[in-house]
């Protein structure tokens, strides 16, 4: 019995040694597996680097392609813009020429019609007066002749009877005559009253027409005076034209431009030398926080005098006054020194634009005074007509559009980078899960092998102890697993 126990113990020791050796072999295998997993991880990292490099190349190619497309589109837009500008210039010149010719024709036609209408009214009035006078005189002569003839006839017819009749018979004869005379007198007076009323109505009608013609002439004169003499009206016209150009370009007030805004520094209004607030007509905003100030000026009286001059001397005098008027506007705008101030948070430029809505008036001044533009520029004032202002507004619109495109590109690239970063984070977390799963699976397999019902496991050793009298704990739910051979023996 003792020999059996010794043999059993020896068997257990030998089994334990053999299990230890096998455990070392498993550890060696696990080390090899770990090295292999590390190699696979390095390969995956290399593949990830290659994919990232390929992705970067694709992004660079896409960026280059997009930049090329943008450059092509920009060239096309610039060509189209140049064509549109040339077409707009031609149309403006044609329209201006037609407007000037139409204005002259309308003014001349109005003057002629006014003079003709006045002449016709006066002639008609005189003709009617003469005709009425002749008609009255003719009716008076006819009535007088009729009265004379009738009286003579009646007197001759009744002369014989009067001599032999009494006073009563004479009265009976004269009474019808008096009645006839009274009726004739009433008819004449009625005719006079009707003629008088007709003349009064005709005179009123003529006066009304003359009054209306005079009012039309006064309105035309007031309109001409408003555009030629009233500076406030001229200024309002220039500001309205400037506002219309900004709206036609699709600009939004408060974003691309400000209108009639008081300039401030340190929260306080900026005052001019004469103590008035500095309020330019329009402030244009560029995307880089630079501002361009535009002030509209209108000088047309001398220009109209030049166009309507009857001789060279009048034309020369009007031209001199016109050029001096433009220079006075330049000096007035330069003295305000808008270019020394800017809205808070914005950059200032060393010039201000003076917009003259009437292109013909500006071209006349520049043609006859070539130094006008240079002298104004030396005073930090750039003179601009509708055409050059439209070109600058087009550039402003293009810069804002490019800014929006750049912002969209930055947003796209930012979103793409976020997506790539999220994909990388996903693969990092997946790799960690995979490593944890592999470790757990390896540990579970190792544990399962160490407790297998066959082989040199602790379960096999425990079953041997059961054969020698040891017993299982009945309170445990799990029993020692049986090997495949034991299951077959039980089935047989």
Keywords:
mainly alpha, 492 residues, 7 strands
Explain this structure.
By secondary structure, this protein is mainly alpha-helical. The protein is elongated and about 200 Å long. It has helices spanning 2-164, 167-228, 231-248, 301-307, 312-336, 359-368, 372-378, 386-450, 458-467, 484-491, and strands at residues 257-259, 264-265, 268-269, 282-285, 291-296, 352-355, 381-384. A hairpin with a 2-residue loop joins strand 2 (264-265) and strand 3. Among the domains are: 122-226, no CATH class; 235-409. It has 10 helices and 7 strands. Residues 216-221 have low confidence and may be disordered. The two termini are 32 Å apart.
Short structural summary:
The protein is mainly alpha-helical. It has 10 helices and 7 strands.
Q: What ranges have pLDDT less than 50 throughout 5 or more consecutive residues?
A: 216-221
For the biggest sheet, the summary is:
5 strands, mixed
Mean pLDDT: 72
Coarse morphology:
elongated
In terms of structural class, how would the helical and strand content be classed?
mainly alpha
Strand ordering within the main sheet? 1-4-5-6-7
* Quaternary structure: single chain
Rg over CA atoms: 58 Å
Question: How many beta strands in the DSSP annotation?
Answer: 7
Question: Roughly what percent helix?
Answer: over 70%
**Helix count, per DSSP?**
10
Distance between the termini: 32 Å
Proportion of residues in β-strands: 5-15%
- N-to-C SSE series? HHHEEEEEHHEHHEHHH
């Amino acid at each position: 019995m003792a020999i059996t126990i010794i043999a059993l113990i020896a068997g257990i020791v030998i089994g334990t040694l053999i299990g230890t050796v096998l455990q070392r072999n498993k550890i060696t295998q696990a080390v090899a597996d770990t090295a292999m997993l590390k190699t696979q991880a390095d390969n995956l990292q290399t593949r990830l680097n290659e994919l990232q490099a390929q992705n970067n190349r694709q992004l660079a190619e896409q960026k280059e392609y997009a930049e090329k497309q943008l450059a092509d589109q920009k060239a096309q837009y610039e060509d189209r813009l140049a064509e549109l500008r040339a077409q707009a210039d031609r149309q403006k010149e044609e329209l201006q020429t037609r407007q000037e010719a139409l204005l002259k024709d309308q003014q001349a036609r109005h003057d002629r019609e006014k003079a003709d209408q006045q002449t016709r009214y006066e002639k008609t009035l005189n003709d009617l007066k003469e005709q009425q006078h002749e008609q009255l005189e003719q009716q008076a002569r006819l009535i007088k002749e009729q009265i004379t003839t009738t009286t003579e006839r009646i007197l001759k017819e009744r002369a014989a009877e009067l001599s032999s009749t009494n006073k009563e018979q004479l009265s009976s004869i004269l009474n019808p005559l008096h009645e006839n005379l009274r009726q004739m007198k009433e008819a004449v007076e009625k005719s006079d009253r009707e003629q008088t009323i007709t003349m009064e109505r005709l005179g009123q009608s003529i006066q009304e027409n003359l009054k209306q013609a005079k009012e039309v002439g006064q309105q035309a004169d007031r309109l001409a005076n408003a555009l030629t003499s009233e500076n406030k009206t001229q200024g309002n016209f220039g500001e309205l034209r400037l506002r219309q150009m900004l709206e036609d370009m699709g600009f939004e007030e408060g974003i691309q431009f400000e209108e009639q805004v008081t300039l401030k520094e340190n929260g306080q209004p900026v005052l001019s030398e004469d103590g008035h607030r500095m309020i330019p007509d329009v402030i244009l905003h560029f995307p880089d926080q630079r501002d361009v100030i535009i002030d509209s000026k209108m000088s047309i009286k001398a220009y109209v005098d030049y166009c309507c001059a009857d001789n060279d001397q009048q034309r020369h005098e009007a031209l001199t006054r016109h050029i001096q008027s433009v220079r006075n506007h330049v000096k007035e705008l330069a003295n305000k020194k808008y270019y020394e101030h800017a809205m808070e948070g914005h950059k200032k430029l060393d010039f201000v634009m003076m917009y003259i809505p009437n292109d013909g008036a500006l071209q006349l001044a520049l043609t006859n005074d070539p130094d006008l533009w240079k002298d104004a520029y030396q005073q930090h004032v750039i003179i601009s007509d509708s055409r050059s202002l439209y070109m600058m507004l087009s550039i402003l619109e293009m810069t804002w559009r490019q800014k929006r495109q750049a912002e969209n590109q930055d947003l796209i690239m930012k979103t793409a980078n976020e997506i790539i970063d999220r994909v990388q984070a996903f693969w990092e977390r997946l790799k960690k899960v995979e490593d944890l799963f592999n470790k757990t699976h390896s540990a579970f397999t190792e544990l399962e092998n160490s407790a297998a019902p066959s082989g040199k496991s602790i379960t096999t050793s425990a079953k041997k102890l059961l054969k020698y009298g040891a017993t299982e704990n009945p309170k445990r739910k799990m029993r020692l697993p049986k090997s495949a051979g034991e299951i077959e023996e039980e089935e047989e």
